[in-house]
Structures are given as C-alpha cells and as structure tokens.
Amino acid sequence: MKMIKKMLALSLTAVMAASCLASCGSTDSGKSGGSGDGKEGDSSNTIVIGGSGPLTGGAAQYGVGVKNAVELAVKDVNASGELGDIKFSVVFEDDEADPADKAVNAYNTLKDKGMDIMVGTVTTGSCLAVIDQTKADNIFQLTPSASAQDVIRNDNCFQVCFTDPNQGKASADYIADKNVAKKVAIIYDSSDAYSSGIYNTFKSEASVKGLEVVSEGAFTKDSKTDFSAQIADAKNKGAELVFLPIYYTEASLILSQSKSADYSPIFFGCDGLDGILSVENFDTKLAEGVMLLTPFAADADDEATKKFVADYKAAYNDETPNQFAADAYDCVKVIAKLVKQEGITADMSASEMCDKLKAAISNGFSFDGLTGTGMTWTADGAVSKAPKAVVIKDGAYSALQ
Fold first, then answer.
1. pLDDT (tens digit, 9 = 90+) per residue, 215-256?
2. Chain centroid to CA 188
3. CA 147 to CA 163: how far, in whole Å?
C-alpha cells in the first residue's frame, strides 16, 4: 500500500539523516517535494498532483500560466475542506516544450517526487513524448492544453482543452456562419502537430462551408522568423482573412511583418494565440482586431470568472490569466470532484487511482467550470464543451457573440 511505502521511506530518510549528522556534523533541514498546500503534517493524507510545461523559452507564458493556476486551484481545494482530511500538493517541472529529452526527463523527475496524478503536459509535442510512459505506469493524465488527437490515444489520458480537429472545424464554422470573410489564407507550421492538425480540419471544413482558401503558407521550426513570402502570397491573392493556427510568438512576427508589407487583413487564430499581448517588445496595437476561439474570456461577467481573475491577479503580480490557466484550474477541480465522488484515498497507489478516475470521468460525469458548463468526456478522452470567440479590443480580450 502507498501508506506503508511512505512510512518506510520516512524511516529510511530519518536513519540516513542521523548518519549524516553523526559523520558530517551538519544536516540539511530543507524538505524535498512539491509546492502548494498539503505537504506539512501527515504525508499519507496527501495526493500529489504533478505537471510539466515550458517555464522558460518561447512558450513560457503557457507553462507559467498552467503552473500558477494549478497551484491556485490546489490552494482553493485544500482551503475548502471538500476532500475532508485529504490534501493536494503540487510538483511541477520545466520541460521547455521540448518533446525530445526534456519532457521525458521532467516526467521521470515527477515520478521520483511521488506524483500520483498528472495535470499535463502543457504542449502537444511534450505530451506525445510521455503518454506511452504514463500508460505503462498507469497514471491518470488530464491535460489542460495538449490538443492533438493522438494525445488521447491511450485510455488513461483525457483533455480539458478542445482537440485540434474541433478547433479547426469550429473556426471555419464561425468565420462562415458569421460572414467574417470569404477569401481566406492560412499560415501554419507544418512541422508542428498542433498547427498541422488544426490546419487540416480547417481546410476541409472551409470547403464544406463555402470559404475559398486562396493561399496556404507553410513554415517549419527551422524557418519561423521570416514570413515575407507567405504574407506576400496572401496579399497578392486577395485574402481578406489570414487564419493562424499557430503559437503567439510566430503570430506576433507575422503581424509585425504584415504591417511592413502594408497588408492589413483580419487575423483569426485559436488558443495558441492566447498570450500575444504579452510578447516582449511586441507593439500590441498591431493585435487590435485579432480574433480567436478560446474556451475562456477573462472579461466575462459571471461570478466564477470574476473570482478566478481577481484571485489570480492577487496571487501573481496583477497578471491576467489566459485560457491555459483557466483550463488548468478546471483540471484540478475536475480531479477533486472525481476524487470525492469515487472515494479515492491518499494511501491508494497511483495505478489504483488511475483505474477509478478513468472509469468515472467517461461514465456520466459532468462538470461546470471556468471553461465550460456541463462539460462531459467520452471514453476516448475528448471533452465536449462550447467554444467562445473573443476579439482583441483596446489591448484586452473582449467576448464576441
């Protein structure tokens, strides 16, 4: 049992510490483990929530937002007492959005730190790098933002975010149904699973909905600084709207270079554009009028959103939470509700927890959160919830109808 293992580990640690004190004359009073509430006192009552994402590098806004929101949600769950004597704690590692070595190293570190349940990873590439390991270890995995369909190919992994196909279809539907534009260009990253997945479905749905895709400009991770050729092609072919199923760093360059090319179409993106207003040295005036689909709008007037935004700002230097943070907060709250519903206890192994959680989430479970009401999950791991459209107006996100 997990409790016995913890007691043995604590006993061994005490013996080793005493030996070190006798031989070295000193000891480290610090304690390893995760941040967040629940580590003090009886660790046998603690369920460890692990996560990884980019805390440094070009996609750091996503990872930092997720980490902050997970910590905030853990604090709220513990303070509420909704789980009785059980507490959550957090361990979080920087994987730099690197699907090669760093994502796997981060995952192994999380296991070493006692992870019971995983919230993550944040980005699609890193998630694809670890899903077979979480499957082999039978660890329940709920990702806030890794949106590729392949992420949920194993039965232990579920998404709170939309899958890439859903984002592509919903974007084409919105543009067509709201008569935003007729002639569309697409600029996408052909080397990235997230971007390519959305692109493929958007293009297919655009044809069904009567949109004319007049230009398709691909780039790769090795050619993502100069977009002059893609912009020129879109401009020359009369594209009224440029669809950007990409991340905010590249999008900010495209907006800047479009201005230099005297090209000012409507720009429309998905959740990857969330964060563009915080890009260093980017003129945010260039993002005015940019539209994107997202499950969360920080300016929404419902009480849950207002409280979350206020609490997040108070905790994190007046930063406004992005959609990734809202999805991550929902992840922890979903897990808390499932833990209570299924009578999961902290002395269960991670595998025992996983078996209960994955069976319950797709069996009539429903959740009302920041990013959707009446959210449900199918056995294949995908979430069902309605997207929201926002536009950047006066330097902030504003909800659209």
1. 999 999 899 999 999 999 999 999 999 999 999 999 999 999
2. 20
3. 5
Tell which residue, 132, 254, 130, 261, has the closest CA to residue 189.
254
- Exposed/middle/buried for 334, CB within 10 Å: 0-12, 13-18, 19+? buried
What's at 32, amino acid-wise? S
Between CA 313 and CA 257 the distance in angstroms is 32
From residue 258, alpha-carbon distances to 3, 265, 373 in Å are 59, 9, 38
Q: What is the 3-state secondary structure (H, E, C) of the chain?
A: CHHHHHHHHHHHHHHHHHHHHHHHCCCCCCCCCCECCCCCCCHHHEEEEEEEECCCCCCHHHHHHHHHHHHHHHHHHHHHCCCCCCEEEEEEEECCCCCCCHHHHHHHHHHHCCCCEEECCCCHHHHHHHHHHHHHHCCCEEECCCCCHHHHCCCCEEECCCCHHHHHHHHHHHHHHCCCCCEEEEEEECCCHHHHHHHHHHHHHHHHCCCEEEEEEEECCCCCCCCHHHHHHHHHCCCCEEEECCCHHHHHHHHHHHHHCCCCCEEEECHHHCCHHHCCCCCHHHHCCCEEEECCCCCCCCHHHHHHHHHHHHHCCCCCCCHHHHHHHHHHHHHHHHHHHCCCCCCCCHHHHHHHHHHHHCCCCCEEECCEEEEEECCCCCEECCCEEEEEECCEEEEEC
The structural domains of the chain, ordered by start, are: 31-162+305-386 (3.40.50.2300), 165-294 (3.40.50.2300)
- As a whole-number percent, the residues of the chain with pLDDT over 70 amount to 89
Q: What does the CA dihedral 72, 77, 81, 87 come to, rounded to 10 degrees?
A: -90
**Angle ∠(40,134,199) on CA atoms, nearest 5:** 115
Of the candidates 138, 20, 37, 27, the one whose C-alpha atom is nearest the C-alpha of residue 78 is 37
Give the C-alpha separation, 211 to 180, whole Å: 10
CA 232/CA 214 separation, integer angstroms: 12
Structure confidence at residue 251 (pLDDT):
97
Report pLDDT for 17: 39
pTM for this one?
A: 0.76
Gap between the Cα atoms of 322 and 194, Å rounded: 18
Scored b (16 or more CB within 10 A) or e, 258-283 reads beeeebebbbbbbbbbbbbbbbeebe
